[in-house]
């Protein structure tokens, strides 16, 4: 783990800051801020058993190529995973208020790039018009490295002794593209697991399809008081990528990631802006490619047995779930736990 990863993990700022509808990030609430300040003494807990649901073994890899070619305006495609973690001290989560953090993992398959763990401040995906802040909290070529950070933890606090945080739970899996449309770049996904959103996915605004305009933050621009990342935590882009923000005196505060490499750095901050989720406004070639890619990916892993079991097996294999003690059943069953 790098020094920047340790700072982001220990501070708690990365996953607890959220964007107001105007794109600004408010300060943490008192309880979360207190917990974040105490996390400098945290250590990993003894691992617990993963999901008890049985499923056949399959050979699946998060980085397995999805397609041989993509439409010209698709600059990246890959697999996308959604996770949530219950609040400190809770063994299960039953509604949004019980959730401490919400994560997205992007595993690019069309270009040589690390897998990314992003924390979304509002603990769910935005509705159409919503603007939610997010930050890259983890990067690795190995899924185990990212999943290890989502396991159970114990924090030694000054006032309440040892407090336990349960492992994150998978809430869904699908395929995604980052497509350039005019001057904008959009993150577009289609859900594979579950086949149709259930109660859990509805609670987290994870639809069958999703479409979000991406805006990357210029690290040289300041954030509102008591919000955003410290100077030590901010992304350190190379000069070539910093040219993305050129165009006005002092540079733009936000820019579209027409080059997805902007997402390949620790501490990269961005805003997800909800667009029309039914993909009716998405380029037809991109839409058809995404649908075909999702269909073919599922066909490779759902052959003859019970479909739910096969989907669960696919998800477990891609995430190395048993090894990393990640609960995967909620994603398939659609029930928050």
UniProtKB/TrEMBL annotation:
<feature type="region of interest" description="Disordered">
    <location>
        <begin position="210"/>
        <end position="232"/>
    </location>
</feature>
<feature type="region of interest" description="Disordered">
    <location>
        <begin position="1"/>
        <end position="71"/>
    </location>
</feature>
<feature type="compositionally biased region" description="Basic and acidic residues">
    <location>
        <begin position="1"/>
        <end position="10"/>
    </location>
</feature>
<protein>
    <submittedName>
        <fullName>Uncharacterized protein</fullName>
    </submittedName>
</protein>
<feature type="compositionally biased region" description="Polar residues">
    <location>
        <begin position="210"/>
        <end position="225"/>
    </location>
</feature>
<feature type="region of interest" description="Disordered">
    <location>
        <begin position="291"/>
        <end position="310"/>
    </location>
</feature>
<feature type="compositionally biased region" description="Basic and acidic residues">
    <location>
        <begin position="17"/>
        <end position="49"/>
    </location>
</feature>
């Amino acid at each position: 783990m790098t020094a920047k990863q340790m700072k982001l993990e220990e501070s708690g700022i990365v996953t607890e800051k959220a964007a107001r509808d105007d794109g600004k990030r408010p300060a943490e609430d008192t309880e979360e801020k207190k917990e974040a300040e105490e996390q400098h003494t945290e250590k990993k807990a003894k691992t617990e058993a993963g999901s008890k649901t049985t499923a056949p073994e399959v050979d699946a890899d998060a980085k397995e190529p999805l397609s041989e070619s993509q439409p010209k305006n698709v600059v990246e495609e890959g697999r996308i995973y959604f996770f949530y973690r219950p609040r400190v001290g809770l063994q299960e989560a039953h509604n949004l208020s019980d959730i401490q953090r919400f994560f997205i993992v992007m595993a690019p398959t069309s270009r040589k790039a690390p897998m990314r763990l992003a924390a979304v401040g509002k603990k769910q995906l935005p509705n159409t018009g919503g603007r939610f802040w997010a930050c890259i909290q983890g990067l690795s070529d190995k899924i185990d490295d990212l999943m290890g950070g989502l396991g159970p933890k114990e924090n030694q606090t000054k006032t309440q002794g040892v407090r336990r945080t349960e492992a994150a739970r998978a809430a869904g899996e699908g395929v995604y593209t980052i497509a350039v449309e005019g001057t904008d770049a959009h993150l577009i996904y289609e859900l594979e697991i579950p086949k149709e959103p259930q109660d859990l996915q509805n609670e987290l605004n994870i639809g069958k399809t999703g479409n979000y305009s991406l805006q990357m933050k210029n690290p040289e621009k300041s954030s509102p008081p008591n919000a955003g990342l410290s100077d030590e935590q901010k992304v350190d882009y190379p000069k070539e990528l910093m040219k993305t923000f050129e165009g006005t005196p002092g540079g733009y505060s936000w820019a579209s990631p027409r080059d997805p490499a902007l997402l390949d750095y620790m501490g990269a901050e961005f805003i997800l802006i909800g667009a029309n989720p039914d993909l009716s406004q998405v380029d037809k070639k991109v839409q058809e490619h995404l649908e075909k890619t999702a269909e073919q990916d599922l066909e490779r892993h759902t052959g003859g047995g019970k479909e739910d079991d096969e989907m669960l097996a696919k998800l477990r294999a891609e995430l190395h779930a048993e090894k990393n003690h990640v609960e995967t059943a909620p994603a398939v069953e659609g029930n928050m736990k």
